[in-house]
Amino acid sequence: MDDRFPNLSAASEGFVFVVTYGRSGSTLLQNVLNTIPGYCIRGENANTLAHLAKAWHAVETEEVLRGARRSGVETPPSHPWYGAELVRPFSYGKSMAEVFAREVLHLPKGVRVGGFKEIRFHTQPTLFRPCMQFIRTFFPKARFVFNTRSHAAVAKSGWWADMHEARVYQALKEAESLFQDWIASYPDICLKTHYDDYNGKPEALRPLFDFLGEEFDLARVSQVLQTRLNHLQQ
To answer: For site-directed labelling of 162, which of 50, 77, 154, 210 has its Cα 20 to 30 A away?
Structure first.
C-alpha cells in the first residue's frame, strides 16, 4: 500500500466505473457487480469527479504552465505567473483522487475492487474525455463498463418522458458517441453492456465477469435480475 495515497491503494485489485445515462438499468448493473465478493461499487455522486478532473486538466494542459515546467527557470515575484514552474499536475491530480476516494467513496476495509456508477458524465461533453483520462491516470487499474439501453425505452422512462422525444434521442446519440470514442482509444480496459441484452437474461452478463476476471455465478446473478428495485417503484 502507498502510504501517501492509502485510499486509492486500499482497493487491492483496482477500480471499476460504470459510465452511462439515466434510466439505462445501471442501478441493476451496479447491484450485480456488488454481488461479487470483495467489490464495492458505489452509486452516483452528482458527477463530483468531473469538477476535480476539470481542475486537474486546467493545470495539466495550460501552455504557460507547461512551458514553465519544461524550462525549469525560476520566475521572479514580479512575473504574472510567479511560481508556475513549481506546479505539479500529477501530484495535484492524484491528491484530489485520493481525497475523493476517502471522502466520497468511503470504501470498506478488505475491498478488492472499488468504484461507482454515474449517469452524468456525458452532460458536459467537453469535460467527458478529460474526466475519463483523470480516472484512467489516477485510479489504479481503472476499468470502464459502458451501459446503454434502447433509446425508445429510455425516452418513455423517468424524467426523459417529459422531454421532446427528438431531444432525448439526440442526447442519447451524443452520449454514446462520447462513449464509443473513449472505447476506441482504450479497448483493453473498456466493455460495453446493453440493458436489453441482459434484462431477464443473466447468462448475457457472463462476458462482464470474463472482462473483470471474476467467476460467474449464474444463480446469484439471476436472483439480482429478478429483484425489483425500490427506486423503480417510487
So the answer is: 50
d(CA 122, CA 129): 9
Does residue 156 lie within any of the structural domains? Answer: yes
How many structural domains comprise the chain? 1
Flag whether 169 is in a domain.
Answer: yes
What's the predicted TM-score (pTM) here? 0.95
Domain housing 132: 6-47+112-233
C-alpha distance from residue 93 to each of 11, 17, 19, 165, 173 (Å)? 18, 18, 20, 39, 30
| CB proximity list for 140: less than 8 A, separation 6 or greater | 8, 9, 11, 14, 15
What are the beta bridge partners of residue 145?
18, 191
**Rounded to an integer, what distance in angstroms lies between the CA atom of residue 234 and that of residue 229?**
9
Q: Which residues of the chain have pLDDT under 70?
A: 1, 230-234
Mean pLDDT, the chain, rounded, equals: 95
